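F.,

This is the one I mentioned.
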């Protein structure tokens, strides 16, 4: 069996984990669901949802990974040998496998639109309707759909093939700063356009009259999905950490980066949308229908269009490599494959599984189950069922089965200063223990982190799950 790799630095780990969390959901989905749910008021609810779900569950996943030094399956087995909780690990591997198969297809679309921006400058995208027809023609073309899916998957395989330090960490240190640079360029361009301030006002001025219970549930669901929780990624990435790294500050930093990019994406998009007289509540078509029509009317539209879809492609790629790493790590740890063989072999299998998704908008569009294409079925199964169930299992496992006391003992490693140690003690709701070197008596049974992980986070995940699958109708 190969010697287990580790991150070269805490910065590399943070950027790689943030790269996993930062995906199409931040730059594609967050702006349009914000537009559909009233702008700034929804942003505030989303930030609250991140606090309720994101931080507690992410920290729990890191703890499981670093303590076990294993992939999701091996992690559950190491912490609770012989128990049925290992199902949570297998679910994480399966979820990563399925999501990457169709996620790579969408990543391929971003590559194709980068080329369209350079070659045509979106000059023929004279209106939203025309842009929609172009997009429909593009995704329904079997050659384009499969080719770009292949290229995107190939890039993911190439990075993971190189390993943790020379592959994932090295490229995360390049790609993550690139995301910020491109975002700031797009923000500057958008804010310089006449009428852009209307977009800023819409985005940042809370209008609570437009908030509904449905909006709150959407925010809860997106907060969970946006951070790559419930699919084994953060367990896997945490397993490559040494004991000297600070899990608490890492989790806060990663959540902060992910949230910042989502907020900046809205600031990059809405000013341009309002400046060009388009509506902010256009739904999923905002990126591939409205924005190309906007770029068509801009000076140097080909450049801004290229930068935007490059931004999307990078965000998709940083998430894709984390999903492939989840699958690869399982076969390395449990079945003793070497990294190169596991990466190429199972990357190829994921590509093949994704081919029907790539063809779902063209030659396979007529083959549906209950009106859903193969792409829709894979997306619905993984995103709406496997992810929340996986996150629910993690919350219960750390909060109730393995226990917050064991989790806090693990979090203490890497908390070098007294403030961190004392804070973690308070957050877990532990009583003073001489072995913890804490001079403060904490008499509450559970405080912030322990309460959230045991009660609030799993309940929020469960409610959002019921809403997503239609069990709760508003």
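My design for it:
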């Amino acid at each position: 069996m190969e010697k287990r790799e580790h991150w070269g630095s805490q910065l590399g780990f943070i950027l790689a984990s943030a790269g996993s969390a930062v995906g199409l959901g931040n730059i594609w989905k967050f702006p349009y669901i914000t537009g559909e749910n009233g702008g700034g008021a929804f942003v505030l609810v989303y930030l609250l949802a991140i606090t309720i779900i994101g931080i507690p569950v992410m920290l729990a996943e890191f703890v499981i990974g670093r303590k076990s030094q294993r992939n999701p399956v091996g992690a559950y087995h190491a912490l609770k040998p012989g128990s049925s909780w290992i199902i949570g690990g297998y679910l994480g591997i399966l979820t990563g496998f399925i999501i990457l198969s169709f996620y790579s297809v969408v990543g391929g679309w971003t590559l194709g639109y980068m080329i369209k921006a350079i070659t045509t400058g979106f000059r023929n995208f004279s209106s939203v309707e025309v842009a929609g027809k172009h997009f429909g023609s593009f995704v329904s073309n079997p050659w384009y759909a499969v080719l770009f899916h292949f290229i995107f998957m190939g890039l993911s395989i190439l990075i993971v093939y190189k390993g943790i330090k020379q592959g994932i960490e090295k490229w995360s240190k390049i790609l993550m700063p690139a995301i910020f640079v491109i975002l700031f360029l797009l923000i500057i361009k958008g804010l310089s356009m006449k009428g852009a301030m209307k977009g800023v006002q819409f985005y940042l001025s809370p209008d609570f009259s437009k908030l509904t219970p449905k909006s709150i549930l959407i925010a809860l669901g997106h907060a969970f999905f946006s951070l790559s929780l419930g699919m084994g990624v953060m367990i896997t990435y945490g397993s490559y950490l040494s004991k000297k790294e600070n899990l608490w500050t890492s989790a806060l930093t990663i959540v902060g980066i992910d949230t910042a990019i989502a907020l900046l994406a809205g600031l990059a998009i809405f000013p341009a949308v309002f400046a060009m007289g388009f509506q902010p509540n256009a739904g999923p078509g905002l990126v591939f229908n409205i924005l190309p029509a906007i770029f068509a009317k801009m000076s140097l539209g080909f450049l801004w269009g290229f930068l935007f879809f490059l931004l999307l492609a990078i965000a998709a790629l940083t998430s894709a490599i984390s999903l492939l790493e989840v699958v690869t790590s399982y076969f390395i740890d449990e079945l003793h494959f070497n990294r190169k063989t596991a990466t190429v072999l199972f990357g190829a299998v994921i590509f093949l599984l994704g081919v029907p998704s790539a063809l779902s908008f063209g030659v396979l569009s007529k083959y549906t189950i209950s009106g859903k294409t193969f792409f829709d079925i894979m997306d619905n199964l993984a995103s709406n069922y496997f992810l929340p169930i996986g996150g629910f299992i993690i919350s219960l496992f750390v909060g109730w089965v393995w226990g917050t006391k064991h989790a806090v003992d693990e979090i203490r490693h890497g908390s070098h200063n007294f403030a961190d140690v004392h804070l973690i003690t308070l957050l877990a709701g532990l009583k003073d223990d001489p072995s913890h070197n804490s001079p403060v008596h904490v008499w509450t049974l559970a405080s912030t982190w322990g309460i959230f992980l045991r009660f609030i986070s799993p309940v929020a995940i469960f409610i959002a799950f019921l809403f997503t699958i239609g069990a709760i109708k508003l």
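Confidence is low (pLDDT under 50) at residues 416-422, 432-446.

Talk soon.
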